[in-house]
Amino acid sequence: MVRLLSFIYPITKKVKSEFNGTLEITWYNGKKHLNTKNANYSYGSLQKILKFGLNKMDLSRCNNVLVLGLGGGSVIKTLGKIIGHQKSIIGVEIDPVIVKIAKEEFKLSKIKNLEIICDDASDFMQKNRSNFDLIIVDLFIDTKIPSPFFEIPFWENIVEATSKEGNILFNASLDFKNECDIINIASYLYKNNFQIERLEKVNKTNTLLLAKR
Ligand SMILES: C[S@@+](CC[C@H](N)C(=O)[O-])C[C@H]1O[C@@H](n2cnc3c(N)ncnc32)[C@H](O)[C@@H]1O
User: Fold this and answer.
1) How many domains does the chain have?
2) What's the gap in Å between 35 CA and the centre of ligand 1?
3) What average pLDDT does the chain have?
4) Is the CB of 98 under 6 A from ligand 1?
5) Is residue 110 packed enough to be buried (19+ CB in 10 Å), middle (13-18) or exposed (0-12)?
6) pLDDT confidence of residue 79
């Protein structure tokens, strides 16, 4: 019923979160989205943006994936279609309210190959000893990427955790922000023998960095 009504007008449920302010779960045109006050977090345009980046990568030999910034998990659903449902995926998310929304509203607890870890992505990367064939870095608080994720120590850990032929997809900005930071990260990855592709104005808004060993 809610789904059908959402074709006539959007229906929104609001949930308060310590990390992300007021979160909105909105039914719109028959599909559920997760938004903050100023940004679409999951499903909707964010899902299209990450899908565009993933489709530019060769993921035929991708066996395990790390997603930093789980949100409502729209990229997990996209990955299921691209790499199949047998491969291992770890999703890291700082906000326990979002983890609950992801499991209950977007049914992520039904995805057997997904392990959800509620932790800060920087702390997780410091402790991590595993390698991944694909690392997706999609860390925002509303429209901003928190500053530690533009600092080299975080990227040292990302490089360390990328497998021999691994890929990185970095959702690097919304609306042309963080230009110097993006150049800095791209040149750090380049010096560490990654091939870099930069995609601008994806879905008219976002900058993506794709890196391949
Ligand atoms: C744009 S959403 C992620 C959307 C998700 N990748 C998807 O495909 O649906 C950004 C997420 O980053 C999370 N985040 C922000 N800072 C974080 C941190 N320090 N550690 C882990 N997650 C963080 C936010 O809580 C939010 O859920």
Assistant:
1) 1
2) 12
3) 95
4) yes
5) exposed
6) 96
22 located within any domain: no
**Ligand 1 neighbour 19 (Cβ under 6 A):** yes
pLDDT, tens digit, for every residue of 7-34?
Answer: 888 889 999 999 999 999 999 888 999 9
Using a 6 Å cutoff on CB, does residue 116 contact ligand 1? no
CATH of the domain at 192: 3.40.50.150
**Tens digit of each residue's pLDDT (9 = 90 or more) over 107-121:** 999 999 999 999 999
Residue 33: inside a domain, yes or no? Answer: no
CA 26 to centroid of chain Cα atoms: 19
Q: Whole-prediction pTM value?
A: 0.97
Using a 10 angstrom Cβ sphere, with 0-12 exposed, 13-18 middle and 19 or more buried, the burial of residue 105 is middle
Q: Ligand 1: which of 48, 107, 138, 169 to mutate, judged by most atoms within 8 Å of the beta carbon?
A: 138
Does 6 map to a domain? no
Domain that residue 85 falls in: 45-212
Residue 64 CA: distances (Å) to CA of 136, 157, 203, 206: 11, 17, 27, 25
Residue 177: pLDDT band (50, 70, 90) is confident
For a ligand 1 pocket test, name from 139, 141, 168 the mutation site with the most ligand atoms within 8 angstroms of its C-beta.
139
**Distance, CA 119 to ligand 1 centroid (Å)?**
11
pLDDT (tens digit, 9 = 90+) per residue, 155-165?
999 999 999 99
Give domain status of residue 8, yes or no: no
